[in-house]
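Researcher: I'm preparing a figure for a lab meeting and need a structural model of a single chain. I don't have an experimental structure, so a prediction will have to do for now. The sequence is pasted below. Please return the structure as tokens so I can convert it later.
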Amino acid sequence: MNVSIERATPADVEKLVEVQIAAFHDDARLYPGVTLGGPPGYDSVEHTLDMIHSYDYYKMQVDGQIVGGVMVTDEGEGHMHLAVIFIDPSYHSRGIGTQTIEFVERTYPAKKWTLDTPDYATRNHHFYEKFGYVRVGSQPVEDFMLLAYEKQM
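Model: Understood. Here is the structure written out token by token.
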């Protein structure tokens, strides 16, 4: 499979939103009791366009088709934050997430990486932990807990 990761552009926004909706809504299928939804603005073209203009936002493509996205933010002093990562559910378990984590860590040589993920998303926990991310805290958000992960480089 030919995977490429490159900066997202405004021309990509509608497809990125379509994939985000599919990815975050898949949580309701995977985890019984979870309602449809996602992070703030996940289903908004305007919000996603603002993120593309404001942050380092990348698209993942397979054979030229957008199948996911990732956004990283610079928190200063060698601290990078993985703000969002999503992959079309029909492309899960094909190594795209692994290639994406390796890409962002290679592209942004940081002292520390952080990220947040819902407590119910146990599949995500395993994924991040296999890359050396360690759970360092949690905070309540609406009807679930948001887990904080960190990786010292």
